[in-house]
Structures are given as structure tokens and as C-alpha cells.
């Protein structure tokens, strides 16, 4: 069960990174072709990818922080 959960989150990380790269590349390409324009679809895609990246970052932060609590520090 534990390995399945790890595999799921690592797959989600890869997908969110690929999605971010594709969306940002397409927005960059569009802005080169037509400067100053951002379509509603591009804005929605950017919002979706940003949300996915924030969820992924929050999950990794809570997973990798000491005792599973974000923002806590341990004394050395």
C-alpha cells in the first residue's frame, strides 16, 4: 500500500511539471506571435496548472517536513 501511494504522488508530480511546461511554452509561443494577448483559454489553463503545482508543493512540503508538520524545525 505504501509503495502505491508513493508511486501515485511521484506520477502526479511528473504530470504537473509536464503540464506546466506545456502551458507556459504555448503561452510564450502565442505571445511571440501576437504580443499583448492572452486568451481566456490560456488563462484558464495557466490557473489550472498553477493550482496543480501548488497542491503538489504543499503535499511534498507536508511529507518532507519533520513530524509531518509544515513549517516546524528541529534543533540540532
From TrEMBL:
Superkingdom of the source species: Bacteria
Annotated transmembrane regions: 6-29, 41-60
Keyword terms, alphabetized: Membrane, Transmembrane, Transmembrane helix
Name of this chain's protein: Uncharacterized protein
